[in-house]
Predict the 3D structure of the following.
Amino acid sequence: LTLDPLIGAISAGNTVVIKPSELAPACSSLLSSTIPLYLDNKAVKIVEGGSDIAQELLQQQWDKIFFTGSPRVGRIVMSAAAKHLTPVTLELGGKCPVILDSYSGSDLKSAVKRIAGGKWGPCAGQACIGIDYLLVQQKLAPVLIESLKRCIKRFYGDNVQNLQSICRIVNKNHFDRICNLLEEPGVAASIIYGGSLDRENLMIEPTILLDPPLDAQIMTEEIFGPLLPIITLDKIEESIDFINARPKPLAIYAFTNDKKLKDRILQETSSGSVTFNDTIIQFICDALPFGGVGQSGFGRYHGKYSFDTFSHEKGVLHRSFFPELEPRYPPWNDFKLEFIRLAYNFDYVGLLLHLLGLRRLFIPNRAR
Amino acid sequence: MAAVDVEAAVKELRNTYSSGKTKSYEWRISQLEALLKIVTHHENEIVEAVHSDLCKPQTETSFQEIFSVASSCKLALKELRRWMKPQKVKTGMLTFPSSGEIVPEPLGVVLVISTWNYPFLIAVDPVIGAIAAGNAVVLKPSEVAPATSALLSKLLGEYLDTSAVKVIEGAVRETTELLAQKWDKIMYTGNGRVARIVLAAAAKHLTPVILELGGKCPAVVDANINLKVTARRIISGKWGCNNGQTCISPDYILTTKEYAPKVVDALAAELEKFYGKDPLGSNDLSRIVNIHHFDRLEKLMDDEKVSGKIVHGGQRDKTNLKIAPTILLDVEEDSLIMNEEIFGPLLPIVTVNKIEDSFGAINAKGKPLAAYLFTNDKTLKEEFVRSVSAGAIAINETALHFMEVGLPFGGVGESGMGSYHGKFSFDAFSHKKAVLRRGFGGEVSARYPPYAPWKLQLLKALVKGNIIEILRALLGW
């Protein structure tokens, strides 16, 4: 998330300052020490630091600001940019839902693998396009849950002390934040798998919740952690209204073969992107623009979109001195106005007929 | 209009938008056709209103505002189906098998804040884009052009679907109330000071914004050109566009010391042909919009650093708010007139030793909305396009690039952000949603845990797209 925008900025010919996140200090330090060894220091600079450095950077005048992070900080960035009329790209987040239609057998197995991989695979759920919650028809929930449990055990293990192939929570602040989500009334009771915590190692077991209260924080804020609420519906079509009642997410994942449902999801919901029958993978498709809409951000990048996002597309019109059109210039008269009207309408026959009364060209307009 | 009306209006638009009505092709076409009817049947009323607000000559209003809007409507009507069509993209090996497309969808409920100098065009042109893209719209016309504002409110109220398209008139108070609402996009045309207010208000709701601002648009005049045609085109873009009160009017001229007198003579000669010996009495020049701007322009002319540099014009008529086309020669860089956007009928000429020096002089100022160069020298043209940053560039022309719908119209830096016109208008008010379709075939188990070195090797090979390496990874070599 630091280098990818940098590639775009450089390819578009800009000079760049990068401020890596202080929450990932080892990477920040590595970037800070390595990039100057390879790149032109006079044009690409790394500035490390926390929010005080960020504030100082935001006071400067930039020709563009590219921000990845939370909506709260996104507002701060955009407000600072407003002072200098600096255009911004905001890559934010949101509650990215999975819609799971009725699948069974090997299709369900594949779907579940992709869902598990899309939830706990990306940084233990701490990813903007990571799955946030899942919508499924009530009668299919039991089979789904069993399949998910088996998959989680296979992928990650079933003991919070011995979890494999999964990140920890980034720091104590976020660990506590995620724990608080579980402590709200009604939420803890809805845990049907996992829930174990290892505060010392900042590990949280992949956790599944079934129908937590919809007004609890876990369902009103972006989780950004390894908790997966499953919301059951009478009919899967209800997922459309459910999603539309909430801010536009960065991605919607829909597992379905029903063409009608696919079309409805595309037409009736709005999100940065929609992926059918998979999760996360749209991120690596460079032909697709990557960006949000509404609360999930604006602007986009990846592939050529990165180049474009850091470019100004300058319109250039070339003209020669010939031909010249008299009716373009004052003094105005009815003839000239009529000429312009006909020209605008590409009425060539009309223009020709009009021109046959050429003498009227030189009579200035009297009455208006 | 009380605050509650603004909120209620926006709420109504949200409900209309949620119903899905504005997304349909048929609805968009019906609204575009209604806008076309307005310009076709009410041309005279529009001309009257704009004349009342600005004393703008009928031909300017018809040519630059009404025909422009008609043309935009017709283009949108003709192209809308194509614009709305998803664009297929080629997905690569990493997501194989899959198909991808980019689907345009409306943003939702948008706000268009217009300005006074092209009070009809700049109000309606963005609305065309917003409607074509399927949004619900609020239009806030400029209160500085009250006759046109009232007419827009009346005509759009009669012809368009008011449950989805509303005109809200008013001044600072109403604009502030509008800016406090949550919009899915805001488009503002005007000046940099208010633009900062708009952007700050938009930031609270993370609303994307298009800003069409202005700047000091320079016109560089080289030697060895057709000076008569050059003069006519400069006059047309300057005084022929609302008497210089236009964001893309040439603000000042740069030319060599030795060529400058010829430029002045050519301009003076053509000015007389266009506007007569007494330009204050010509019907073909707009007046200055109000006393505030008149006083502002007088101050620029009377600045002691430049008052002795007037070589043509300078006449003024305060009662009728008229200022004659005025040319100033050899103005200093630190004069008032060279440090703010003139937005009026004063044309300073700055002289340089070599014509190439003008590029540095332009780049030392804020990036303008447009930059113009008159030359026959191919190298100079290339260097100009390459090194001068501006919203747009026109070679051997002024202002006319506005009419070329194939070119995006917008600024950069201080002159704004975002662009519109033609399909760019549709795009400006759309969200281009990325869609990836997959099935369950072509499952790559290497992407799932538990992770292992062979999985990493395979994924690396897939990312590189190297068939040999993929095979090696699969076979464990």
Observations:
- Residues 97-288 of chain A form a domain with the Aldehyde Dehydrogenase; Chain A, domain 2 fold (CATH 3.40.309.10).
- The longest strand of chain A covers residues 227-233.
- The CA atoms of residues 320 and 326 of chain A lie 15 Å apart.
